[in-house]
User: Which sequence fits this backbone?
């Protein structure tokens, strides 16, 4: 789920996680690929940012993580915007 913020170069990103394993998850990261989109819809760049997962997560449990994902101001001139489109995660 994406939500805007009061800062043009930031988005609020929420993800649900479910631990389907038989052991708790105690470490992990999520990486967001945030695209910088020009006035005419051209995708100018993708900026990755990595954040910690909301852990620990017990077996069979679900949790939601929410992160404020921002791109440096100089990467998003007036008339451009960002869209966080890519998500990858790794947990152990």
Assistant:
């Amino acid at each position: 789920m994406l939500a805007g913020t009061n800062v043009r170069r930031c988005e609020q990103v929420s993800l649900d996680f479910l631990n389907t394993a038989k052991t708790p998850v105690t470490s992990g990261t999520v990486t967001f690929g945030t695209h910088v989109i020009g006035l005419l819809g051209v995708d100018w760049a993708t900026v990755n940012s990595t954040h910690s997962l909301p852990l620990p997560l017990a077996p069979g449990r679900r949790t939601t993580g929410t992160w404020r994902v921002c791109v440096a101001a100089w990467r998003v001139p007036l008339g451009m915007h960002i869209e966080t489109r890519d998500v990858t995660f790794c947990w152990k």
